[in-house]
Amino acid sequence: MTTETSPPVAKRVPTERIHHGDTFVDEYAWLAAKDDPETIAYLDAENAWTEARTSHLSRLRTELFEEIRRRTQETDLSVPTRKGGHWYYTRTVEGQQYGVHCRRAVRDGETTPPISSDGAPLDGEEILLDGNLLAEGHDFFALGAFDVSPDGRFLAYSTDFSGDERFTLRIKDLDSGELLPDEIPGTFYGTAWSADASVLCYVTVDEAWRPNRVWRHVMGTAATDDVVVHAEDDERFWVGVELTRSERFILIDIASKLTSEVRVIPADNPTGEPAVIAPRRQGVEYSVEHHGHRFLILHNDGAEDFALAYTSADAPGDWVPLIDHSPGTRLESVDAFANHLVISLRNNGLTGLRVLPIAGGDGHDIEFPEPLHTVGLDSNPEYRTSRLRLRYTSLVVPDSVYDYDLTTRELTLLRRRPVLPGPDGRAYQPEDYEQQRDWALADDGTKVPISLVYRRGTPRDGSAPCVLYGYGSYEASMDPWFSVGRLSLLDRGVVFAVAHVRGGGELGRRWYDQGKMLAKKNTFTDFVACARHLAKAGWTAPDRLVARGGSAGGLLMGAVANLAPDAFTGIVAQVPFVDALSTILDPSLPLTVTEWEEWGNPLADPEVYAYMKSYTPYENVAALDYPAILAMTSLNDTRVLYHEPAKWIARLRAVAPQGEYLLKTEMEAGHGGPSGRYDAWREEAFVNAWTLDRLGRA
């Protein structure tokens, strides 16, 4: 299948797909047979080829890994969060892959969180869960649920040891430290306790792995006796479950890409019939937050960027306006506390927080000095509180945790993530780096924002190498974030840029709508426009530009490879959604039906079929001079199946054999890649080494 001097060659098995009078021959469909030894042998051969082709980078990979490790305070402790009579926090220990989840009792007169600057355990610590012990004997480990009951006695947690995001749910008695016999396999994310902790609600999936059922488990009974609270039969919708911050109601969230419905159960009557807040109406999205005598409703009914209303908690009915719609200011969520509401919003491409006092008076925005930043609420489980826990970061400022006094408006920095000295022994100084926003002009005249960060003094004469990152789907915003691993690129003279293309949510709901369905190509042309702009403005040049994206951002990578191969010297596509049309045509695959409101339904609509076929990367591979491509995937990924990038690389080699195409498959991982932190650092070092090699900085 492969030799030391030639890449793997996938056999061709013509398989016809016929829709709307169109025939497509898929010669590599056989790679979808995950249990076929020939498939595994091919993936192993690809891994061996990738290792051989990158063996000259092994020393650099080690250097980059060590730079991440050296800059990271490996033994560390998160800022504790108060809930009831305890402070909850997570510790990491040098040499250990996973976090240790702990709590410590609140002491008399203690109003501020106890902080351990060296990461040492707090005096009086109680270990709730040690991820390292749970992970022993497994190549992969992830936590799904981690939910302490309202009385603080029980911990519901769930584990996944393969990466397929299907968890086994267990319950631990925190008083005795013992695991209870209650054990529920095959669960999904999301749990909610009843007020007295006698009942636990949870979620399961259907055969297409769509979260479709909410269950009620009575403590001390067998899982086979559990009762379905809600079963969602409409395949466009998925379900979730949560307990309100007030701990008064269990919420059942039901949503498609365009429509939502919320049902509530009193937490003190968990066997009661769920009450509908408002029946679903196509195109109307809303979310619910409980606050005293009312339910707060964040909705888009006649409000493109959302508005806030409320209805009675005793008898939900008409919605009474609270905050009117303001075009251009996207309201993203509302959090209710006893005496304040906090609105998370975005305006002009930046996130923000607005505080509204219940007692009356004008609301106010919490101010931050940097022109580019990301701010949001951190964990705030207490309903009656005078303080907010915030999390703040930017492209140059590490993750920072603040407390905000709701009365005095004082902002107190509790902790900034330490960045230890790098290879040169110098302490990290944000002023050594610069960040700024630039704008590209899309083909239709739309201005597309670009966020950039680089080391101070980096030339702007077209000689600097650059990495351009993009996503552009699901209204997900690529807000500025800090990365220790990225410092290794910046210190080698690389400019890092983020293209905020349409399909994301950076500039409000309209920005999203203009990059989905039959406007999806705007996502791709926006990214190319950003690449062209960076070269024209002197930030870089096409032969010094590497593009990077993952998942739906991997679709973006595959599309721009076909659209503008001359704009890049390399492309990194991680868990890439590159066989989009084949996947969206198959309702039996995970998540397909729920995705029709994002991409369109090519099964039912010939126009959607033709439009998707015109851009889906796999089917549009042509005899082009492609840049070097590194595709990375995971065998147990349930969101973007491994065979999409495997087929894509095989087709690229067959149709454009002069190119350099590599496929790296994690054989024991899921959509997020390796689970342990050291393994994740090694993967990032692998990507960055390949990137630096393409940029001439290896």
From TrEMBL:
One of its GO terms (molecular function) is serine-type endopeptidase activity. The keyword Hydrolase applies. InterPro entries: AB_hydrolase_fold, Pept_S9A_N, Peptidase_S9_cat, Peptidase_S9A, Serine_Peptidase_S9A. The lineage of its organism: Bacteria, Bacillati, Actinomycetota, Actinomycetes, Micromonosporales. Residues 8-416 form the Peptidase S9A N-terminal domain. Gene3D superfamilies: alpha/beta hydrolase, Prolyl oligopeptidase, N-terminal domain. Residues 481-696 form the Peptidase S9 prolyl oligopeptidase catalytic domain. GO terms for biological process: proteolysis. Belongs to the peptidase S9A family. Keywords: Hydrolase, Protease, Serine protease. It comes from Micromonospora radicis. This is S9 family peptidase.
